[in-house]
Write a structure and sequence with these properties.
- The chain is an alpha/beta fold.
- The protein has a single domain, classed as Spore Coat Polysaccharide Biosynthesis Protein SpsA, Chain A (Alpha-Beta Complex), CATH 3.90.550.
- Helix content is 42%, strand content 16%.
- It contains nine helices and nine strands.
- The protein is globular.
Length: 291
């Protein structure tokens, strides 16, 4: 049976943070859902825990085993390719520590059901009344700085690209987003959005930016044990610069501006050449106007 949703969970040394019961409860209460758990070269007890989850629900759980650690970006991509091979209607990825609770799966699915034009749903951690968002202040403020830079790099009013919960409606275009490896290990989320924005849209269809939806999460809890370190922030900014330059290279308005500048320079060069080749008029001594 074709699953409605395949959820990918990248795992690297997550033995202390995995919650097998939460995953098993989720698949038992969502018959149309399957899990793809990616062991990204873990060297702790992650493999045993993943095997235990699969053993309890073999029809609903698949394990992708990477022999060495390739980073979160490639772990997610490997999981997404495995998910797409099952031909689901929807694919998603959540962080292994479940900082975004699995109950949010229903909120993501509701967006796709009620908004047929939306293809990409981004989880967004916004501290609002009635929301249970718990983030360390340092990560929150660094995140706001980075989010502002991302908005400029993508030319997109996005609030939160780095939340580890995203869902996509599957079609030929969205499936192609995972064909090539990601350049960045940590800000591949931004690279994924940039790839999506570059996908062509047929005449009469909504623009790609109008098919992205940010879902304010009802709950998100910062879990100890994050693999992100302070020195990853400068690296992320460098990767973001590469993404910005690539977007500019593919931006039709930028290309049109470059063409206009090239045409203008060519016209100026031709005019200068014509002035140099035009014969000069010689004025004879004593020649002038008659009084």
């Amino acid at each position: 049976m074709t699953p409605e949703l395949v959820l990918v969970v990248p795992c690297y040394n997550e033995a202390a943070r995995l919650d097998p019961e939460a995953f098993l409860h989720c698949v038992s209460t969502h018959p149309g859902m399957q899990l793809v758990l990616v062991n990204d070269g873990s060297v702790d007890g992650t493999a045993k825990i993943l095997d235990r989850i699969r053993g309890a629900a073999p029809a609903s759980v698949t394990i992708v085993r990477e022999p060495i650690n390739r980073g979160k970006a490639e772990a997610v991509r490997a999981g997404m390719l495995a998910a797409l091979s099952r031909h689901p209607r929807v694919i998603a990825f959540f962080d292994a520590d479940l900082s975004t609770p699995l109950q949010a799966v229903d909120d993501f699915l509701a967006v796709l059901r009620t908004r047929p034009a939306v293809e990409l749903v981004l989880g967004s951690r916004v501290m609002l009344m009635g929301r249970d968002i718990r983030r360390r202040p340092s990560r929150h403020y660094l995140g706001r700085v980075f989010a502002t830079a991302v908005s400029h790099a993508l030319d997109l009013p996005v609030y939160d690209t780095q939340c580890g919960a995203k869902m996509l409606r599957v079609n030929a275009a969205t499936a192609s987003l995972f064909d090539q490896p990601f350049r960045s290990r940590w800000v591949f989320d931004v690279e994924l959005i940039a790839r999506y924005l570059r996908l062509p849209a047929a005449t009469g269809e909504p623009t790609r930016r109008d098919r992205i939806y940010e879902l304010v999460l009802p709950a998100w809890h910062d879990r100890p044990g994050s693999k992100l370190r302070w020195f990853d922030f400068p690296r992320a900014m460098i990767d973001l610069g590469h993404i910005w330059r690539e977007r500019r290279a593919h931006d039709p308005t930028t290309q049109h501006s470059r063409i206009s500048e090239d045409v203008s320079r060519a016209r100026s060069a031709r005019a200068a050449t014509f002035r140099q080749l035009r014969p000069h008029r010689t004025v004879r001594p004593g020649a002038g106007s008659t009084q």
